[in-house]
Amino acid sequence: MPDITFPKQVKIVEVGPRDGLQNEKKLINAKDKIALIEQLANAGVSYIESGSFVSPKWVPQMATSTEVFEKLNRLSNVTYAALTPNMQGFEAAMAANASEVAIFGAASESFSQKNINCSIDESLERFQPIMTVAKAANIKVRGYVSCVVGCPYEGDIAPDKVAIVAEKLFKMGCYEISLGDTIGVGTAASVEKMIHAVSQRIPLEKLAVHFHDTYGQALTNIYTALQSGIMVVDSAIAGLGGCPYAKGASGNVATEDVVYLLNGLGIETGINLEKLLSAGWFISDKLEKPPVSKVSNAYRAKK
Fold first, then answer.
1. Taking CA 143 as the corner, what is the angle to CA 251 and CA 125, rounded to the nearest 5 degrees?
2. Class of the 11-302 domain?
3. How confident is the model at residue 249, as a pLDDT?
4. How far apart, in whole angstroms, are the C-alpha atoms of residue 244 and residue 262?
5. What is the mean pLDDT of the segment spanning 231-246?
6. Distance between CA atoms of 34 and 28, rounded to whole angstroms?
7. pLDDT value at position 196?
8. Contact, 179 vs 165, CB < 8 A?
9. How far is residue 239's CA from residue 292's CA, in Å, rounded to a whole number?
10. End-to-end alpha-carbon separation of the chain, Å?
11. Is residue 243 annotated as part of the catalytic site, yes or no?
């Protein structure tokens, strides 16, 4: 077998409290969200997407984000990030003392039109004021690109399209670009091609991957990304969040499963798996449903 080189260390970006919970129907109160975030931090997770400053009318689950950020007991070595879709959201995130913010663009024109009623370029232009103010305030901005291998409306997405959008976000000032397989259709081959195309325009160390597990390929795709030199992986505790574009499908890859994979490869994450599992069981009990994580269910069965 040929030698495969993996990174020695991988940063996990925990998106469960935001991206995960916002797709869960059962509303979780601020106290329980805070407890989840604090448990994740105590497990060694160094980056937690803790909320989103959007209209509660559109995303009711995120209505408590200000309270969550204001009442959190924070660890000094943990980044507590917020998604901010517009300037109003950015200002609210700053008022609540978010560590940094995230903005987003799509690699699919149809997805952009149907979701935010504007073109890809128009959507990115809307973020320019945020980038200007964030830079002046020395606030880091992370960029998301959705539909990086497939779109619910257009089907397959050309890798070059993804590379162009990612480069625009990078040139705007995003310090890291997270490449999101929004509907979870990626395969090892399509992911490898996509990462190769994007890495021609942006340094690999500035890229992250964000996989949904709709077709059960998320861990395989993460393995492929690691082989390609990616060192940052987004995931959600307990596999929180269904995929809104694929009925009945599981959503984000579970953090427990990702950490188990990385542990098996001898890749350092700084995360305590036992404490991580406890955090997953805590929020799953609050949601009154079992974790999507296979590792979590296997460990719980052993107890």
1. 120
2. alpha beta
3. 60
4. 28
5. 87
6. 10
7. 98
8. no
9. 5
10. 37
11. yes
Q: Which two tokens stand for residue 193?
A: 């091609």
User: Could you tell me the pLDDT band of residue 244, with boundaries at 50, 70 and 90?
Assistant: low
Torsion sign, CA atoms 15, 19, 25, 28 = positive
Separation CA 199–CA 229 (nearest Å): 10
pLDDT at 149 over 90: yes
The span from the CA of 258 to the CA of 7, in Å, is 14
Tokens linked to 183 = 């509907």
DSSP-derived letter for residue 19 is I
Q: What amino acid occupies position 260?
A: Y
Q: Is the pLDDT of residue 2 over 60?
A: no
Q: In whole angstroms, what separates CA 116 from the centre of its chain? A: 19
Predicted TM-score (pTM) above 0.70:
yes
Give the span between the Cα atoms of 116 and 291, in whole angstroms.
31
Cα(1)–Cα(111) distance, rounded to whole angstroms? 41
DSSP assignments along 69-98, one per residue: HHH----TT-EEEEE-SSHHHHHHHHHTT-
Contact 81, 62 (CB under 8 A): no
Q: 96: which 2 tokens?
A: 């609540």
pLDDT of residue 301: 86
- Is the predicted pLDDT of residue 221 greater than 50, yes or no? yes
pLDDT tens-digit map of 44-99: 999 999 999 998 888 999 999 999 999 999 999 999 999 999 999 999 999 999 99
**pLDDT over threshold 50, residue 1:** no
Residue type, 115: N
> Parallel, antiparallel, or unpaired for β 79-83 and 141-146?
unpaired
Find the catalytic residue in 147, 151, 174, 243: 243
